[in-house]
Write a structure and sequence with these properties.
With about 300 residues, this protein is α/β, with parallel strands linked by helices. The chain has four domains: about 5-75, MurE/MurF, N-terminal domain (Udp-n-acetylmuramoylalanyl-d-glutamate--2,6- Diaminopimelate Ligase, Chain: A, domain 1, 3-Layer(aba) Sandwich); about 85-150, no CATH class; about 155-205, no CATH class; about 210-285, no CATH class. It has helices at about 5-10, 45-50, 80-90, 100-110, 140, 185-195, 240-250, and strands at about 15, 25, 35-40, 55-60, 70-75, 95-100, 115-120, 130-135, 145-150, 155-160, 165-170, 170-175, 210-215, 220, 230-235, 255-260, 275-280, 285. Strand 11 and strand 12 form a beta hairpin. Helix 4 (about 100-110) crosses helix 6 (about 185-195).
Length: about 300
Amino acid sequence: MRIEDIVNITDGELVNSGYITDINFFADEIQKVKRECLFISNDIDEIKEAINKGSYGILFSQNLPIIDEEIAWIKVDNIDEALLKLLKYKFLTTTLYVTNDITLQIIKSINKDKRVAILDELKAEFLNDNFIYITSDEKITSISLNKKSLNKVDLKVMNASTFITNFVFENKKYSLIFPPLYLDELKEALYFFKANKLAYHLKDVKLDRFRPQFINSKYEKVEFGRSDRVVIYGIRKDKYFIREINYICENMKHAKVKFFDKSNIDTFFNEKFNFAILVECEVELNEATQIEIDSLFE
């Protein structure tokens, strides 16, 4: 890419042009620097190392000395904003898949393909090569004119419980510790991989919300399904909250359910329950020294 184009796209200032007119690679991590790249950083020590590795240019936003006059130095007001502008330029000819936070988490957990660029943060490496881009970030979504949403694949649910989904997809049976609550998001994630012929491993699926931890009568952690007492982590008062509460009410209506938040979490170890729902709070549990195998609550 031409240095002149980078300056114009980022609204930057070419402080020093040196002998460089083009760069062939972007990097903002020193271990990924290679010859002919544009290194993006404000760290003078890393900049020195990048120059020694053959960097053709530096993009920076702070007041730094020009320590090598043979390469290009581009000063911008803000590095993140500069990256965003460069991405916007790339998206003029590249499709950006747009999805929600849960689907993106699923995609991130099962992805096994280096061609996938998950834009949950800005990275210079995403400006290189031909990635398949996807994001749930509204700011990144707003810069693309070539946005595409995800459809849903067809899969056949054989049976399901509160935390487990058994289904058939493309003639293969799966039994996942995955709440059917998020089945639509799983279908969208699978569509992303199948539509783009990308590698994935469905057995690795996981979420940071609605995470079940089975415990014994001593409030110690036990293996999945080894008790009729479950602590559910990762519930937050966000756009998914009402949906999750409705799911809890529907699927746990015959059980003893106790909700905890920061106002009453200190009473956790004094309460009796089948399901403890932790809303924007955590509790530390010890590993069981001797597993008490209770009857599995269904």
